[in-house]
Automatic annotation (TrEMBL):
It comes from Luteibacter jiangsuensis. Its cofactor is [2Fe-2S] cluster. Residues 2-108 form the FAD-binding FR-type domain. InterPro entries: Cbr1-like_FAD-bd_dom, FAD-bd_FR_type, Flavoprot_Pyr_Nucl_cyt_Rdtase, FNR_nucleotide-bd, MRET, OxRdtase_FAD/NAD-bd, Riboflavin_synthase-like_b-brl. Transmembrane segments: none annotated. Pfam families: FAD_binding_6, NAD_binding_1. This is Ferredoxin--NADP reductase.
Amino acid sequence: MAEQFQLRLVDSFMLAPTVRHLSFERVDGQALAFVPGQFLQVHFHYDDGKATKRSYSVGTVGDGSNPVQRIEIAVSYVDGGAATALLGGLQHGDTIDASGPYGRFCLMDGDTNSRYILIATGTGVTPYRAMLPQIEALMASRGCRFVLLYGARNEGELLYGEEFEAFARAHEGFTFHPCLSRGARPHPRPHDRLGYVQDMLAELEPKPEGDIAYLCGNPNMVDAAFSALKEHGLAVQHIRREKYISSR
């Protein structure tokens, strides 16, 4: 059930040159109940007074069974963007207006597939970070396997990359493929791939009878990956999408 509330910034750090990780707590002291994969909306006004809002996936790591006190998001800075001016200038202790949670980009209880293909670019990887405890539980209870294809231009733009690397090392059923479109990192790792995420799908050999895919991030990537997965025979209901559109 969506609520309206104020958030107070309690911590932040730069994830990449143009991406900031922000941690909030509700001003009213209440915890936030959300399902990993859902998003919040931040409400503010343009300089002319017109009301507007922006959506951000909740990145707090949790299994969805208990509300959380820390509400974490990742914000990409857009040159000249109104949300960038607001969130880029926030100091610890500052407050913003928000509402949520919203959305259905979540792992579903009724699924019976054997593998999940998770695909992301940019801050589109944030919901998968939130899902990690659920992913761990599904690997244990159903024997599911997970593959995360994460597209970035270079190593410096792999948001939460070390967290996913560590999770993959600790869980045999989880594979993490950073897909770097502007060339290899100085010290390549065995699971790195070069190119765009949609071009890596053939290597995974998607199978309509066993795979469900999640696509989150740049709209062009989402559309290209959606088309590629359909060509591999996946049913539309087994390709779940969320597009991130940069707004000024």
